[in-house]
Design a protein that fits this description.
Largest sheet: 7 strands, parallel
CATH superfamily: NAD(P)-binding Rossmann-like Domain
CATH class: Alpha Beta
Number of strands: 7
Strand content: 15-25%
Shape: globular
Helix content: 40-55%
CATH topology: Rossmann fold
Order of helices and strands: EHEHEHEHEHEHE
Number of domains: 1
């Protein structure tokens, strides 16, 4: 039986890297997509040094031709796509009034168009196989409104709705679609180091590895099970 193949966008750093490392450790053949070739190569080498199989394609997933070319190239190299993790995107602190238009366009492109384009390219491959799983990485910022967060919450809200409706479109082809909404993921500590308790006595951040483990839990469900939506927060965020 062949090992399963997974593609992770935004796989060169942060949460994408953490998910890719976890997939590689579980025996998945991992395909990495991102803009920075050096970051992708480093993650590929890290997976391979631990006995895994990985490849990468540098691409801007917000551009259809680049997204399609990268997805199909990795599908060909790894003999299919069992799992697609749409993680590309980011977060910006400025308010809508203060954000630069070019930065806003780039965020919307990589997050929303990137998620849609990569799913669009992968679906025909999955349909041919009769099965597949698409996990879109959202955020709690896309579920509730909060002050001074319009820039970052807008693409995550779009990913939430896209995930729900895309799942209805693809389920008849054996393709499951889910969305994972993490909150307050630590970006400065080593990816697998648990963030400390805050000064008020509560945990306020999650490690990247913790969120990656939850993503793997969703991915590894049997074909007849789909966790359509999952919200994960540090224990002290909502109290």
């Amino acid at each position: 039986m062949r090992s399963k193949a997974a593609i992770v966008t935004g796989g060169g750093k942060g949460l994408g890297r953490a998910i890719a490392l976890r997939l590689g450790a579980q025996g998945y053949r991992v395909g990495l997509i991102g803009r920075a070739q050096s970051d992708l190569a480093a993650v590929r080498d890290e997976i391979q040094s631990n006995g895994g199989v990985a490849a990468f394609r540098a691409a801007d997933v917000g551009i259809w031709d680049e997204a399609e070319k990268a997805i199909l190239a990795l599908a060909d190299e790894h003999d299919g796509i069992d799992v697609l993790v749409n993680n590309a995107g980011g977060w910006m602190p400025p308010t809508l009034e203060d954000v630069e238009p070019a930065e806003l366009a780039n965020l919307l492109s990589s997050s929303v168009l990137g998620t849609a384009y990569c799913a669009k390219a992968a679906i025909p491959v999955m349909k041919k196989a009769g099965s597949g799983y698409i996990l879109n990485i959202g955020s709690t910022s896309g579920l509730v409104s909060s002050r001074d967060n319009a820039v970052s919450s807008t693409p995550k809200g779009a990913i939430q709705l896209l995930s729900r409706t895309l799942g209805l479109e693809t389920e008849r082809f054996g393709i499951r679609v889910s969305v994972l909404h993490p909150s307050s993921v630590e970006k400065k500590l080593p990816y697998d180091e648990v963030p400390p308790i805050g000064p008020d006595g509560f945990y306020v951040r999650l490690s990247q590895a913790q969120v990656a483990d939850i993503a793997l839990f969703m991915i590894n469900q049997p074909d007849n099970v789909n966790i359509r939506e999952l919200v994960v927060t540090p224990s002290g965020v909502f109290r």
